[in-house]
From TrEMBL:
One of its GO terms (cellular component) is cytoplasm. This is Proline iminopeptidase. Belongs to the peptidase S33 family. NCBIfam families: pro_imino_pep_1 (TIGR01249). InterPro entries: AB_hydrolase_1 (IPR000073), AB_hydrolase_fold (IPR029058), Peptidase_S33 (IPR002410), Pro_iminopeptidase (IPR005944). It comes from Cnuibacter physcomitrellae. GO terms for biological process: proteolysis. GO terms for molecular function: aminopeptidase activity. It catalyses: Release of N-terminal proline from a peptide. It is found in: Cytoplasm.
Length: 325
């Protein structure tokens, strides 16, 4: 079973001004003459990590990572925002434009696109918009912001499997009934931007902990601890919630409907059968619309990219595409 490539450090990095007062952190590692690949992180709001570089053979890939607007090392950071309006220029289509600006800035004509979880949403949105710039697509933990997907994980469906963890998600809502809206996502929006910073942080940690506690098949205290760190939790929860309140600024089902645009792009879809966060029905629906892509349902995995079966499938895919141009 394949595992991570050795740890590597970037050979170049910087901050790219993408407009709207936003500067995104980018880095390159691996082989400057290698096959270009851009990695799209999850969340939205999750940021990149050093292990993301290790999904690619550093001798054969020119590995481009970046932190999306408002999170990671990009500025301004959403944990320091004062109102929801500070996120007005943070949408799916702003991020699609940022990817194109980064590609042009780095002097890359075409590249492979790798995205997991929210990163799969963004990868689909980018590839369906800029098909001619994508050589291959590798997608993991498929998520497309359909109402059925959001309702499952954030409005109560998943509590059928994790009722104990769901109590933690509901705790801030129960503690602050004045914030209640018609939906739990709407209620969380009020809590995450409460004028009392303690209320906002409590909500951010609860939102982030719910996700961190359910993305792996077996509990991972290190993952939960990372997600619950205050700065990380505030950016992660606020950005995710912002996207979900607005349904990603997309017609429901748009990315699945338009997947036929991808038919000339080689693709691999990797999804854990026991993914509680983004259930496998979305990967199945995408595959039916894009049958040319390989679908790998990993029998003993949840959602996280570094679970052994998922990691093996992802690195098998990146190795296979490494020498294609």
């Amino acid at each position: 079973m394949r595992s991570f490539y050795p740890e590597i450090e970037p050979y170049a990095s910087g901050m790219l001004d993408v407009g709207d007062g936003q500067r995104i952190y980018w880095e390159e590692s691996g082989n400057p003459e290698g096959k270009p690949v851009v990695f799209l992180h999850g969340g939205p709001g999750g940021g990149t990590s050093p292990n993301h570089r290790r999904l690619f053979d550093p001798a054969r890939y020119r590995i481009v990572l970046f932190d999306q607007r408002g999170c990671g090392r990009s500025t301004p950071h959403v944990s320091e925002a004062s109102a929801p309006s500070d996120l007005d220029s943070n949408t799916t289509w702003h991020l699609v434009a940022d990817i194109e600006r980064l590609r042009e800035d780095r002097g890359i004509d075409r590249w492979m696109v790798f995205g997991g979880s929210w990163g799969s949403t963004l990868a689909l949105a980018y590839a369906e918009t800029h098909t001619d710039r994508v050589t291959e697509l590798i997608l993991r933990g498929i998520f497309t912001l359909r109402a059925t997907e959001l309702d499952w994980f954030y409005e109560g469906g998943a509590q059928a499997i994790a009722p104990d963890l769901w109590e933690g998600y509901m705790a801030p809502i129960d503690a602050h009934p004045r914030s209640k809206e018609r939906t739990l996502i709407g209620t969380y929006r009020n809590l995450l931007w409460d004028e009392d910073p303690e209320v906002a942080l409590e909500a951010a940690v609860a939102w982030s902990t719910w996700e961190a506690s359910t993305i792996t098949l077996e509990p991972r205290p290190d993952v939960i601890e990372h997600f619950a760190e205050p700065r990380q939790a505030l950016a992660f929860a606020r950005i995710e919630n912002h996207y979900f309140v607005h349904q990603g600024w997309m017609e429901d089902g748009l990315l699945i409907r338009d997947a036929d645009k991808l038919r000339d792009i080689p693709g691999v879809i990797v999804h854990g059968r026991y993914d509680l966060c983004t259930p496998a029905f979305t990967a199945w629906d995408l595959h039916h619309r894009w049958p040319e892509a390989e679908l790998h349902l990993i029998k003993d995995a949840g959602h996280a990219f570094d679970e052994p079966g998922i990691l093996d499938a992802l690195i098998t895919a990146t190795d296979r595409f490494a020498d294609a141009r």
